């Protein structure tokens, strides 16, 4: 395949149902052109990756012509090396979100591919590529990134190791087999960078951000209460970042690429990078935009993926369930993009010491993010989402309230 980069699709995902067993999925009649399948051999360790991707535009009844601001990239044989492969999902937000996500997708991959140190020092290569891409996006005269940007979740496969670089609140998850019965457990490969994390919340406050939910900004709730529960149970009013004396930008994440205004209050493009050793106990891994994880836990996603032998069917199942849950809770959906990668034929890892970079179990990714230093050169706003699912549902007569751009 070489490189596949795609943006949006035209058809809705198929419904998801299963009988509890692994299903030999066929390509769905509703699959779009960007729902593709690729088998990628890793000759250095004699196994294969079988990957598929699906992206769906969200349903926005108030803005029916809003385009899909998600995009993705799958690049195999990076630098001509059959053991090096790149996967990435980019979730744009703001008025120029689509332009931002496409620019970052293209430029980030280009920089990584042209970095001679990529294989020997992928962590540094990621940091340099993100920093350069962010600077170039700020300087691009054709893209206004003052209130627009993109998140990025990326995985670089080098032999039997995964290098995961994350900026924002998209997510990568790996499946871990825990017993002989085939039960799998989800292990997050990235941490969502949002104000729910105490470390991220304190970091942006030190940079001058006010952290408040919309209800707090509007005076409905006490702004002095700096506790919002956890991300899984916070509902539809998460903590957001605001300028000291202004009602913007309202980002619900703490890192992104772009967002030059939010960068002034600590929304940076510095990736958190982790390393994971693949083993025979890792049947699959997933990258997806936050549209997937808004109402689905990492475990729910891994469970669905594990039921399907064909990663295309797994993508369709997760996307369909995500849409269904969005429309049960709200009158819109987010853009949804998911890459599913099955790991086939890996009999053992290259680890000689069980404690090396995550251990022989393939779980517990090792964080190799550089020490906190210059975290001021980047951008973010949790205003991605631009989607259109069938003209299905609900008109909502709720009283208008302050809504940051999504």
Fold and architecture overview:
It is globular and about 60 Å long. The chain has helices spanning 97-113, 122-139, 198-206, 214-217, 290-293, 298-306, 311-329, and strands at residues 3-6, 36-42, 47-56, 70-75, 84-93, 149-158, 161-167, 171-177, 184-188, 210-212, 240-242, 249-251, 257-258, 272-277, 284-288, 336-344, 366-367. Mean pLDDT is 82; it is low at 6-34, 351-362 and 371-403. 52% of the residues are buried. Helix 1 (97-113) crosses helix 2 (122-139). Helix content is 20%, strand content 24%. It has 406 residues and is of the alpha+beta class. The strands form three sheets. Strands 1, 4, 5, 6, 7, 13, 14 and 17 form an eight-stranded antiparallel sheet that branches. A six-stranded antiparallel sheet has the order 2-3-16-15-8-9. A three-stranded antiparallel sheet has the order 10-11-12. The protein has seven helices and 17 strands.
Give the topology, please.
Layout: E1 3-6, E2 36-42, E3 47-56, E4 70-75, E5 84-93, H1 97-113, H2 122-139, E6 149-158, E7 161-167, E8 171-177, E9 184-188, H3 198-206, E10 210-212, H4 214-217, E11 240-242, E12 249-251, E13 257-258, E14 272-277, E15 284-288, H5 290-293, H6 298-306, H7 311-329, E16 336-344, E17 366-367
Antiparallel strand pairs: 1-4, 2-3, 3-16, 4-5, 5-6, 6-7, 6-13, 7-14, 8-9, 8-15, 10-11, 11-12, 14-17, 15-16
């Amino acid at each position: 395949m070489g490189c596949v980069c795609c943006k949006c699709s035209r058809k809705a995902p198929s419904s998801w149902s299963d009988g509890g067993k692994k299903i030999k999925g066929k390509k769905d009649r509703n699959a779009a052109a960007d729902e593709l399948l690729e088998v990628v051999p890793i000759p250095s360790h004699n196994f294969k990756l079988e990957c598929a991707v699906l992206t769906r535009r969200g349903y926005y009844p108030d803005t029916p012509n809003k385009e899909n601001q998600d995009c993705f990239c799958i690049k195999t044989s990076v630098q001509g090396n059959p053991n090096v492969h790149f996967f990435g999902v980019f979730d744009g937000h703001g008025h120029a979100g689509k332009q931002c996500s496409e620019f970052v997708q293209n430029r980030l991959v280009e920089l990584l591919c042209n970095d001679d140190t990529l294989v020997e020092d992928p962590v540094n290569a990621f940091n340099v590529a993100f920093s350069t891409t962010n600077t170039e996006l700020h300087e691009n005269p054709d893209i206004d990134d003052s209130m627009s940007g993109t998140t990025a979740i990326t995985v670089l496969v080098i032999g039997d190791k995964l290098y995961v670089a994350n900026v924002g609140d998209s997510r990568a998850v790996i499946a871990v087999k825990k017993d002989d019965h085939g039960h799998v457990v989800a292990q997050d490969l990235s941490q969502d960078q949002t104000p729910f994390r105490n470390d991220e919340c304190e970091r942006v406050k030190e940079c001058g951000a006010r952290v408040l939910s919309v209800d707090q900004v509007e005076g409905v709730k006490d702004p002095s209460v700096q506790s919002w529960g956890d991300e899984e149970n916070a509902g539809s009013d998460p903590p957001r970042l605001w300028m000291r004396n202004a009602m913007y930008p309202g980002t619900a994440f703490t890192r992104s690429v772009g967002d030059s205004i939010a960068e002034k209050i600590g929304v940076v493009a510095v990736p958190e990078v982790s390393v994971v050793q693949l083993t025979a106990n890792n049947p699959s891994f997933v990258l997806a935009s936050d549209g997937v994880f808004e109402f689905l836990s990492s475990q729910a996603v891994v469970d669905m993926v594990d039921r399907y032998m064909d990663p295309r069917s797994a993508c369709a199942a997760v996307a369909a369930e995500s849409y269904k849950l969005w429309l049960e809770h709200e009158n819109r959906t987010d853009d949804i993009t998911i890459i599913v990668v099955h790991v086939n034929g890996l009999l053992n890892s290259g680890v000689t010491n069980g404690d090396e970079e995550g251990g022989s179990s393939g779980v517990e990714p090792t964080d190799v993010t550089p020490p906190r230093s210059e975290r001021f050169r980047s951008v973010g706003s949790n205003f991605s989402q631009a989607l259109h699912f069938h003209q299905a549902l609900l008109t909502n007569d709720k009283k208008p309230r302050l809504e940051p751009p999504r």
